[in-house]
User: Fold these one by one.
Assistant:
Number 1:
Amino acid sequence: MLAIWSQPETWISLATLSAMEIVLGIDNIVFLTILAGKLPREKQALARRLGLAAALGTRLLLLLAISWLMGLTADLFRIFGQGISGRDLILAAGGIFLVGKATFEIHDKLESAHEASGPSGGGRATFGWTILQIALLDIVFSLDSVITAVGMAQHLQVMVAAMVLAVGVMLAFAGPIGRFVEEHPTVKMLALAFLILIGVMLTVEAFEHHIPRGYVYFAMAFSLGVEMLNLRLRRKAEAPVHLHHRFEDDPQARKTAKEQLEFDL
């Protein structure tokens, strides 16, 4: 069992699979961030940790049931000549749920009147219901993750190690990402749009129309990059007005603060 770790191929496989698992985990982090943001601030970190622990547990359980998992790819029935497997049903259900959930959240942000109870109207979602939604969607996100791991690595130990490393990285970045999204409403709206995109992708894949994930992730990264430029532009445009009101009686202090802000930007 330990002999495989002395082979360079094992470490190359571990690094490659870990990187792939981290990329596939982007969907999970986006969904986790949105749901955890509905909770009171003091419970958000715990929800993120429990959500990622559930994601790891789901992946490991699916790995231990590889034969059952591979059986999910067998056709259960056919519709108009199209074979439908257990995996297809799970992906379709998860995709439709994501589209519906993201659409509801967008409508909630745009149309509903929120009480001033926190940055995201926290307190309206229950902790248990949030964790249950995360756990259920973890099953959907874990399917492709585990199937990818089985196809890329030959040893179960390597698959387990890669998944533990990937979840560890996601756990380290989930908190900062969650706080950043909550502090910027436009980024949160963009994240909800990403969820709709991911939901559509899962639904389409359920009917055997594969969309290369590279295209989807590139579109997400490009959109996020543009939004980062917009945030910086807004901050730079608002800075002179803020400085004017703060230092209107002290021109020298205003000049110094403005120069420091421009340096920071």
Number 2:
Amino acid sequence: MKVNVLFSTAAMALAMLATTQANAKEPIEPIRPVQDVNLAQVELGKKLYFDPRLSKSGFISCNSCHNLSMGGTDNLKTSIGHNWHQGPINAPTVLNSSLNFVQFWDGRAADLKAQAGGPIANPGEMAFTHTLAVDVLQSIPGYVHEFKQVYGKDKIDIDMVTTAIAEFEKTLVTPNSRFDRWLLGDKSALNADELAGYQLFKNSGCVACHNGPAVGGNSFQKMGVVQPYKAKSPAEGRVAVTGKDADRFMFKVPTLRNVEMTYPYFHDGEAETLTEAVDIMGRLQLGKRFSGKENRQIVAFLKTLTGDQPAFQMPILPPSSEKTPAPKPFE
């Protein structure tokens, strides 16, 4: 059953309706609270998101790399997978990922549902197979009962699993940032430096790629437009999907929402701080060298994009049965 879920106050909802004409012309839009989600699937997906039994080791969950206590990422240059495998790419935040036009840095998944199944079967991440993951869930009576309640079927399949995880991830939006409040008419929400940083962000051309409600996530762009980017990661972007040389170093533009929490930055995680990231982006993408003051002002603006973080009661996972494989984190 579809229901409307409001994650903001009535005051914010009224303010959303009262957005001024001037702010409507801004290249960045406020994040709207989530509506129209299936609550039963959300609750099931929440359990699956935190359940390490979807991995071969029984130790790695979705939350391992997309930690909801850490801005929806892991704050590592590249993530740690099965048997301490070092991943080739920085884990993008799961927060506001429903606003992305595609998923993953290279856009190989069209939507959240397609993305949810990828890490489970990736040998360098959760290292399972979809068949084995479903077998584990089918061995847990609590899951069998809940899947039956949600989907009306006795047998679990991977489509149900990924649909539920995606539905939960739709709720992971972060409205009500100070910048959103400014967009909605609260002119006291930003100070002078933050406003100056936003003007620099617009006038320098950053908004050509970082726009919309997610402040990014809606296009592919080449990393290193004015100057080449010297990457240490083997990941080469969109070319891995299309096979076209023109797509080499083309990556999905990341969202800048909650960016102060999602360090380190870029697909290889080589920029450790926002100050460093702003400097590199200015030089390589725009051909502009920001002064120390300009850099500080842009960073101050970027920090106003931190919104209300998802808050919910941690799920209690159903216990394994005698048929459920025991965790084997060292194999």
Number 3:
Amino acid sequence: MKIILVLAGCVLMMAFVISTSDLAQAEEILGTGTESLIGGDLTDPEDDGAPDADEGYNAIFTANEEPGFGGGEFSFNVFDNRLGPSNDKWCCGRGGGIPEEGLHITAELEEAYILTHFTLSSANDVPARDPTVWEVQGSNDGETFTTIYAHDGDSVWTERLQVALFEAGTDFDAQDTGYKFFRHVTFDTASNPNGAYFQIGEIEYFGNAGLTPVDPKAKLTTTWGSIKNAR
């Protein structure tokens, strides 16, 4: 009887460990470094954006802190198609803590897209700066935003410059509305509000053109990006 009870306890413990691990890492990790980015996302389908000149992008970028590419580790660097230190990331906050409305960056597209998946990448240093409470939101007027994905917990990354993939129908609800504006908002990090309290490496958005879902057979109308790594 004791042996049976011990075995049962081990099975329950194993099940608990597996379930909690799945909850903590529901997203898929694609790898680390620039080569692990999918590429060809909605903001730059041709991968020919010139970040220093803010040219070649299929989106207009805005942010409520440090707008711009390049120097000062500005916010638009999350769309430069590169992962690395310095000007290849957005870091680190002006001090005084993250404001109530969060630190947000928005990509405005020429037409609406139904979000099918996105990637979010860690930056190069200090894991305590990683977002722990954050959202991806959509809008069609740039003023009223709807939450598409929300995270409230530990950092999703286990390494620096790591690319995490989030998919509709798996990590967030399959969408039935397209949006012209996609916004990432960070509300908290482990180091907030002290010191340099925030950083993101890269963001990629992918989706189907249109305000409503397309026929699944009409694959030619789908913008997926070109996946560089076999999955």
Number 4:
Amino acid sequence: MLKLGYKASAEQFAPKPLLDFSCLAEEVGFDSVFVSDHFQPWKHDDGHAPSSMAWLGALGARTHRIMIGTSVLTPTFRYHPSIVAQAFGTLGSMFPGRVVLGIGTGESLNEVPATGQPWPEFKERFARLREAVTLIRKLWSEERVSFEGQYYRTEKATIYDRPSELVPIYVAAAGALVAKYAGRTADGFICTSGKKRELYTETLLPKVAEGLAETPGKTYDHLMEVKVSFDTDRERALQDTRHWAALALSPEEKMSVEDPVEMQRLADSLPLERAASRWIVSSDPDEHIEKIGTYVDLGFRHLVFHAPGPDQERFLRLYGEHVLPRLRKKYG
């Protein structure tokens, strides 16, 4: 079954309007809402960074059926894994069957300013992620957990409020090692659109499949965050991508940037054509669906749409009317 979601951009909007947009997403027919988890936004001017875990509690209480979760949270630096386990145990208890913990290895923009610690190499970030997942699941399934890891410790720790079924953990991956781990260990895989097709067909999806082959038979979700700029006015759709120009920066250009002021400077220096390069920009619903269909054909059955424009209500109503029904008719 095809699931169609809305990406709540916590870096772009204050918590209250973002909550209103996300409630509207349920109203117009979206199946899920996933929120980013940033300590600092991609740009300093007019940026936002509400707490995802506090915000998800409000979203769950204001909505009734949608799946809610993070895309993605880093459970390894500014959050100790036991605190993540407690928070998502609470969310899962309040909204059973609706909550997903989406996680990744993190970016210095979010972790270094909040902790002051040096930003480690990928090997350590990945090792921390694996250890965090092990600890979180132990805390969800056992009592009086004394854990002695390389990076984290607990002493007779118990999460007293947790759901009867473990909250699903989805892992975001942009490379082969984490993709295979996501298939082997997680309940779902997260990646983002707008990259070279070969990355998905030759690296990410085959590695997820390798990991899944080691644990056959489990229910698994392939989630793609699809960057879309859709409007009846194509020029408006194109200009809307300017706010998110930072996403067009390469990993090498942005991975170690810790200051939103510097990130904004780098993004503002990009020409509009490059700023828009990660986005499906269109004013034609059929053209839009054809381009989205390339990801469905790759095997992604959960599409979470990230729109860049300031008028999110306009986007949600246009998408609910013109795009979601067509997608469900063609692929659902």
